[in-house]
Amino acid sequence: MVVHVLDQYYLAITILITTVYQLLGFFIAWSFQFDKITDFTGGSNFFILAFITLCFGGTFHTRSIVASVFVMVWAIRLAGFLLFRVLKTGSDTRFDNIRSHFFKFLGTYVQVWAVSLPVTVLNSPAVSDTSHGGSNPSFGTGRDIAGITLWVIGWVIESVADVQKFRFKSSKPPKDQPPTMGIWAWSRHPPYFGEIVCWWGIWMLCLSPSTDGSLTGGAKRAQYAAITSPLFTTILLLFGSGVPTAEKPTAERFYLLTYAPSNKDKYPGAWKAYKEYLRSTSILLPLPPAIYRPLPDQVKRWLLLDLPFFGFDEKTDGVTALEKVKQGSDERNR
Q1: Rounded to whole angstroms, how far apart are CA atoms 281 and 290?
Q2: Is residue 64 scored above 90 in pLDDT?
Q3: Which of 6, 39, 171, 278 yields a CA-CA distance of 20 to 30 A from 269?
């Protein structure tokens, strides 16, 4: 039985669920200033929205089940992995600069509702209730197949990359060794690439009622508007909480291994080795180093998105990093 609640697209009810759930997790994490539930709360919220909207929709069309299960599988794996990792490490360094800032920390949750939109809209009465204007074309359209293919590729890349990186760190490698194991030899951020591909696949899978069915008017516009999900994911990971939080900090760490006074002569080749890793390894799209390395810089920057502002400038960023080290040393010696 279809459940009609607040609006025909389930937008309001999913906002309410997300707000209550995330605020509860946020206040616990912010009040105690720890990260042990931050990623779990975010990941599990995706599961909750997919499950509830599927049950509320009540039609259980094959496409709705497949799309919802894909989101739930993605959410369980990610939330479980990140919870396991933070329990092992004790904290999540990605939150170091925002943990003590209320609104910055709260902002880490805003993407959940927007990214869930393709499945939320698909499961809603406006799209899936065929007795009231919805549409359910036969499962197996070209977009269904393309969406499933993209999701599987993205999920495998993201999952394998997370495991490989965790095992690499757990093996306690030399400090001056870049992560060149497995798929990390082809991409500097394979989990982000995999996540982006997953959500483009989900949106494409959910779109068939509009492209191959009989949806019209607001329901059709809502499905196309749900492209907000993969676009938001792509923009967030490329320019927000993804690549920018890792690129310069990682480069700074290798730079200081070579040039920080406290590391004098310990790791003389660390920065040179890391710069070679940057020249040989795509920032996002996995490519064999033999193909990526000889590409022109303009292709790497503007086509493969290794944009200039991601880079670590020795003349500016390097000087700033050394000054921070000196200031920290001076404060400890007072």
Answers
A1: 9
A2: yes
A3: 171
CB 143 within 8 A of CB 205: yes
Q: Which two tokens stand for residue 32?
A: 């105690």
Start-to-end CA distance of the chain, whole Å, equals 71
Please choose, from the candidates 28, 167, 11, the residue with its C-alpha nearest in 3D space to the C-alpha of residue 105: 28
Using DSSP, state whether 210 is helix, strand or coil: helix
- The model's pLDDT over 241-275, given as tens digits with 9 standing for 90+, comes to 889 989 999 999 999 999 998 887 899 999 999 99
Which structure tokens are listed for 134? 């919805």
Q: At what angle do helices 228-239 and 190-206 cross, to 10 degrees?
A: 170
Angle value at C-alpha 329, between 327 and 332, nearest 5 degrees: 110
Token pair 């690129």 is found at: 247
Tell me which residue of 53, 134, 42, 144 sits closest to 86, measured CA to CA. 42
Contact of 189 with 283, CB cutoff 8 Å? yes
Distance between CA atoms of residues 327 and 142, nearest Å: 59
Q: Measure the CA–CA gap between 98 and 94, rounded to whole angstroms.
A: 8
Tokens of 250: 């990682």
